[in-house]
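In the current project phase, our protein records have gained a structure token line. A sample record follows, to show the layout:
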Amino acid sequence: MKFKSYIGFLLLRFVIIQLVLIGFAYGIYKSSSLIILIAVIALIVLVSELRHFVKRRFRIIDDFFEAVKYRDFSRWFPEDRGPKDIRFLHKGFNEVNRTIKEVNTKSEAQHVYIQKILELVEVGIIAYQLENGKVLWSNKTFSEIIDLPSFKNISFIEKRDPQLFECIFETYYPTPETLSITINRDLQKVLISETLFQIEEESFKLIVLQNIEDTLNKNESEAWKKLLSVMTHEIMNSITPIASLAETLSQQLQLQLENPEKNPVDTKDIFNGIHTIKTRSEGLLKFAKTYRNLNKESKLNLKKINVSDLFSNIKTLMEPSLKSKGIQINFEMQSKRMEIEVDEHLIEQVLINLILNAKDALKEKSKPVISVKARYTDNHKVVVSIMDNGIGIPKDIMEDIFIPFFTNKSTGSGIGLSLSKKIMMLHKGKIKVHSKEGEFTEFALIFK
């Protein structure tokens, strides 16, 4: 037993103290002052030495527990000097410190590993204490989704954006739910789910936030590719009978030229055949022109252009036709030095599409006005907006206007807005719409 020597020394000291006490009693019995004095001195020395003997070991234990209390496991106790029992204590304490440090190292490694994984996922995650709002942990994606810097307490969001705070933190979502939240005047679709958990006596809430708008855009892009593949197939199927009809007419004319008497040709049939080819070819040509741009590779001819030059080109192109319809068009810029890095021809096409849509919405207005404005957002992004005071967009079709082929116009193709959205996606930008029936419609082009 490792503490055998410690117990032996302790018992020995108690025996000696007992003997001294007997001597003290004997001195009183014999009325010997010398014996009494020697016994008292010996007793004081022995008790003091016993106190020091015990206190030394308790002080070592107390130091160890103090280190444990403050989670200081870096202390090293000497194992090669002092009494055997103390060296054994030191060895035991060192072993405990070594084990705890290994456990902490593994725990920290796992924590860092989990943190890195959660930082890489494209899902926003935050955990905070319910009582005081103190953030336990939050990843970078969460800050990116709500477009705010990192924070240590959710009260920061309450001060910056009370509406967003109430939507995300005050409302409880026990099951995943889709929300539309406004981030810097930009409507975002997110999927939110929450759970409550407890650590000891403290309660926490874990919120998971996912921006599903980008996912929807990716899915829409994939749908476009599939759709265009089908369209290409259908075009080829239409061209085949045209080619066949042309070949038949060519053979008939060839035979008629070789032997007019035996192979008379009905000019009416020839005319009808040619007219059919012409009509169908024109339809296919128009179809091809409409969808041609959608099937191009996603390569942009990017260059920095001045927004004022862009507005000047659009004004020259569109103002005459708008004036002939009695429509006033205004151009405004927050700064004449505003620049954007874009494919100029494609962005012009987007602006033309949106202005033409605005023109169609103004047919029933007595004082029709189209306003084209450029401004900076709070995070220095450029936004170009096209606003009209027309009939607005009905709420029941608001979410469908960017879907390919969807239109509520009798002569519309349903391609203009979907093509505009695709062009903005290629620029890594966004197109947003805000409308009120009977009052106005505003399209905003947000550049990265």
Notes: Residues 303-446 form a domain with the Heat Shock Protein 90 fold (CATH 3.30.565.10).
